[in-house]
Specification:
Layout: E1 3-11, E2 17-24, E3 29-33, H1 40-55, H2 63-72, H3 80-101, H4 105-108, E4 117-125, H5 128-140, E5 145-150, E6 172-173, E7 178-181, H6 183-201, E8 206-210, H7 217-226, E9 234-236, H8 246-251, E10 258-260, H9 267-275, E11 281-282, H10 291-304, E12 308-309, H11 319-331, E13 338-339, H12 345-350, E14 356-358, E15 361-363, H13 376-379, E16 387-388, E17 391-394, E18 399-400
Parallel strand pairs: 4-5, 4-13, 5-8, 7-17, 8-9, 9-10, 10-11, 11-12
Antiparallel strand pairs: 1-2, 2-3, 4-15, 6-16, 14-15, 17-18
Helix pairs in contact: 1-3, 2-3, 3-10, 5-6, 9-10
């Protein structure tokens, strides 16, 4: 069996997605997600110009060898563009292998380690009352875990707050939106917000929060300490992780669990964080961290240090990535939780899938492969539409992390 052709499908059913389709000479095909939010076309060019020509004629069964070829053979290793492209190939090849075996992908990854995948939803509100009500909504849907974000008094915009719709989508059409941020206002407000959530809903569910890289290490330590009475499942991305010793300082001051890694591209980005037990959850994804093959290696390292997985699952990951992630989640022994931001009806129509939600858990289904397909004719009706994540500035105009 040989890879006969491969090509990229770019579509925007509400937001932009890049899908790689790899087709064998026997007509069996696999799909991989190659979406890099706000930089989608850079991955398309990398795949079309540099990766796909190297795939033609290769045996699709040789997943690990092809992974190493694309990683080591390029010389310029890692980075979000390279690793997203490799991830798309890797995911598509696993899809092909499982289809040829006539098995759901999780069976090739060692079988089930659990019956379902616990997920969390995003409860957002412009103020405390609206956010508390949003938590009620998600609990009513059966979620066992909810991420809560609320507008900060004195700021017109805040990370995580939907603009008049249930499902938060941060990317905006056209050039990046610039938003104003105040660390001081946030730090004073956030403990009171979570006190209100727990006062209304109690402690019989998991409560999560995303800081989104906004704080210095000592500020993050202060927030983590102040949130201890609210017993968070995790505090996500408390500070930028380029300086990994920063997490050591946070650890010294709070027992609030720390989750990090959605922007990581390889095991080298998180190796020291895991080995030094400076985090509790690693949030690397199938699409941005080199695919299923590499994500399994990250999870295996994390298992040695009792760090659990908590993969990113926002709407900038297509249903192809979500489907692949669920098979990984179902199989990996040290799974923690999976983020689940629901896609639009238009997106679900473009990407028909076998995974399903029930009472706080996602189930990948038992269709051969990862269980997600693409309707190419329907996808063609939604052409690429440039969109970017916002930019954050402090009240004095200083640029800060978004």
């Amino acid at each position: 069996m040989k890879i006969e052709r491969a090509y990229c499908i770019v579509t925007c059913p509400g937001r932009n997605f890049v899908t790689l389709k790899v087709v064998t000479d026997q007509g069996v095909y696999g799909l991989g997600d190659a979406t890099l939010n706000g930089r989608e076309k850079s991955v398309v060019a990398y795949l079309q110009d540099h990766v796909i020509p190297c795939l033609i004629g290769r045996d699709p069964h040789q997943i690990e060898d092809i992974w190493q070829y694309l990683y080591k053979g390029a010389y310029w290793r890692r980075g979000p563009v390279t690793m997203s492209a490799i991830a798309a190939v890797d995911t598509a090849l696993w899809d092909i292998k499982a289809k040829l075996a006539g098995l759901p992908l999780y069976q090739l990854l060692g079988g089930k380690s659990r019956s379902g995948v616990m997920v969390y939803g995003h409860a957002n509100g412009r103020d405390v009352s609206e956010a508390v009500d949003a938590v009620s909504h998600y609990l009513g849907l059966g979620y066992k875990a909810v991420r809560a974000q609320a507008g900060v008094p004195g700021l017109d915009t805040a990370y995580g707050i939907a603009k008049g719709k249930l499902f938060y989508e941060p990317a905006t059409k056209g050039l990046p939106e610039e938003q104003i941020w105040s660390t001081e206002k946030y730090i004073d407000f956030i403990p009171r917000f979570f006190e209100a959530v727990r006062a209304k809903h109690g402690f019989d569910f998991h409560l999560l929060h995303d800081v989104h890289h906004r704080l210095t290490p000592i500020e993050a330590a202060r927030v983590g300490k102040s949130l201890e009475p609210s017993r968070l499942f995790w505090m996500e991305d408390p500070t930028p992780a380029e300086n990994q010793d920063a997490l050591r300082l946070i650890r010294q001051h709070t027992v609030t669990p720390i989750a990090i890694g959605e922007v990581f591209n390889s095991i080298h980005d998180c190796r020291e964080l895991i080995q030094n037990q400076l985090i509790d959850y690693i949030r690397t994804t199938v699409v941005h961290a080199g695919g299923i093959s590499h994500l399994r290696k990250i999870a295996a390292l994390a298992e040695l240090y009792q760090v659990r997985t908590g993969s990113h699952g926002a709407t900038d990951l297509s249903p192809v990535c979500m489907g692949a992630a669920l098979h990984f989640d179902l199989s990996v022994p040290n799974f923690g939780i999976q983020e689940y931001m629901r896609h639009t009806d238009e997106t679900d129509a473009v990407f028909p899938h076998h995974y399903s939600f029930d009472q706080g858990f996602l189930y990948p289904g038992d269709a051969p492969g990862h269980g997600v397909d693409i309707d190419e004719k329907l996808a063609a009706k939604y052409p690429y539409d440039p969109a970017y994540l916002p930019i954050a500035r402090l009240e004095d105009g200083t640029l800060c992390s978004w």
